[in-house]
Structure formats: C-alpha cells, structure tokens
Specification:
With 284 residues, the protein is mainly α. The chain is built from 11 helices and no strands. It has one domain (2-48, 66-278): MetI-like fold.
C-alpha cells in the first residue's frame, strides 16, 4: 500500500510539473497569497490613516504605490484589501463546498424525496445569474463581511450539489460499493469510507474554479458598496474610490485590478493543475 501510494503521488506530481501553465498558475496564486498574508507584517503602515497633506502623492520610497485622495498609503491598503478579499472569497467557497457538497452527497446516496427536494432547490438557484443573485442577497441582508460571505456562497451551492450528486450516483453503483453492501457494512460507513473519498477529486477542482469566481463577485459587491464596508480596505472598494482620480493616480486603479486579475487567473490555473493531479476527465 505504501509503494502504491508513493507511486500515485509521484505520478500526480509528474503530471503537475508536465503542465507548465498549471504549474505557473500555482506559483502565481502562491505569490498573491503569500504577499497579502506576509506583506502587512513587513509593511506596517496603517491602511486607514488619513494624511491630507500627502493626498494623491506620486510613488516614492515613503509610499511605493503613492497615496489616494485622502492621503492613505496605497500599498498598505492593497495588501490589507487583498487579504480581506481573498479571505471572504475562500470562506464563501468553503461554505458552499461544505453545505452544497454535503447535500449533493446525501442526495445521490439516499435518493427518493430528499433527492427530489435538493435538486428542485438547486434548479431554482441556478435560474438566477450568480452575480445577480449575490446582489439581491447582499441588498436584502445589508453590507458586511458575514453577509458578503452568505451572498457569494449561496449562488455556488447548486453547482457543488449537482457535481457531488453526480459523483455519488456513479460511485454507489461500483463493484466495491456493492461488495460493501453485500458484507453488511452500515450506510454511514459506506458513505464516508467508500463514496466520499472517491468523489473529492472533481469537487476539489470545482472549488478552485469557484474561488476565482468568488474573488470577482466579492470585488464586484465591494465596488457597488454592498460588500465589506469602510474603514476596512477591500479591493473592489479601493477601485470604486479610485476611479474618480484615475488620471492623477493610475496606480490606485491598476494595482488592485492586477491583484484581482492575478488571483482569478491563479485559481483557474490551479483548477487545471488539480485536474491533472486528480486525473479528472481522463476516464481513468
């Protein structure tokens, strides 16, 4: 078993390294995550400190990316804002992953009325564009971190539920599951020991792709004033605050836009990399 496990890990690592674009995505995303986590610890400038005497200052040694209309250090705001945006996006995906996948797993395994109920709810949620549904929920619940997580996670629920249901339906008919039923194993043991471990690959890939979408939705809600509220910096909010003085301070728009773009690109390419690692779609 140890040799087989080592061989599988070696094969997965080989597939990951062979796909240079996916490997580059892992590096890009790792760079963004490390920067927003470690950056505020190294650049200890208050991101909400106002200095009107230095408003719209050009990039310098004191302010590497310059300052905004209120004299706040843009580098500090982007580092802290990137941390907030990524945290909210990842937290939203985790919530959707846990509840959506859990419902889909039980739906495909139990079947019957529970399956019908879960799928009808999923159909209703899928009838709305994700960003539109997130806007409606955020407008109804109000701004804030917790409500933003809720608004972004709910539109992602049906995608995880449908994907996990499809995996559960396929796996429950395989020989090793039928053999487990035949020897008298309990349904819970079959579910968590045989069905769930074999369904995590495609769902993990979906989670990475959903994280990229979540970053865009979190930034979009912040841009519209329905996301994380001031004084906490957030990339979408930084963008909307900076659009009025784009010509005077272009880095105020370009820098958060680049961070958002790199985060989305990194999560999408990470999904490709995970697809290679789990060998999703190869049919093997």
């Amino acid at each position: 078993m140890t040799v087989a496990t080592t061989t599988r890990r070696g094969t997965a690592w080989h597939r990951l390294r062979r796909n240079r674009l996916s490997f580059a995505g892992v590096l890009v995303l790792s760079g963004v995550v490390i920067t927003v986590i470690v950056g505020p610890l190294l650049w200890r400038v208050d991101p909400i400190a106002i200095d009107l005497a230095n408003r719209l200052a050009a990039p310098s040694a004191l302010h590497p990316l310059g300052t905004d209309i209120q004299g706040r250090d843009l580098l500090a705001r982007i580092l802290h804002g990137g941390r907030v945006t990524l945290f909210v996006a990842v937290a939203s995906v985790v919530v959707a992953l846990v509840f959506g996948s859990g419902a889909g797993l039980l739906s495909g395994f139990v079947r019957g009325w529970f399956d019908t109920a879960v799928m009808r709810v999923a159909d209703v949620l899928l009838a709305f564009p994700p960003l539109l549904l997130a806007l409606v929920i955020a407008a109804a619940r109000g701004p804030g971190v917790a409500n933003t997580i809720l608004a972004v996670s709910i539109p992602a629920l049906p995608r995880f539920a449908r994907l996990m249901r499809a995996q559960s339906l396929a796996i429950r008919e395989r020989e090793y599951v039928l053999a487990a039923w035949a020897v008298g194993l309990s349904p819970l043991r079959i579910l968590f020991r045989h069905v769930l471990p074999n369904a995590v690959g495609p769902v993990t890939v979906q989670a990475s792709i959903a994280a990229g979408i979540a970053v865009l939705e979190v930034a979009g809600l912040g841009f519209l004033g329905l996301g994380v509220q001031p004084p906490s910096p957030e990339l979408g909010a930084i963008l909307v605050d900076s659009q009025t003085y784009l010509l005077q301070q272009p880095t105020a728009v370009l820098a958060p836009g680049i961070v958002i773009s790199l985060s989305i690109l990194g999560f999408n390419l990470l999904g490709d990399a995970l697809g290679d690692v789990f060998d999703v779609g190869s049919g093997s």
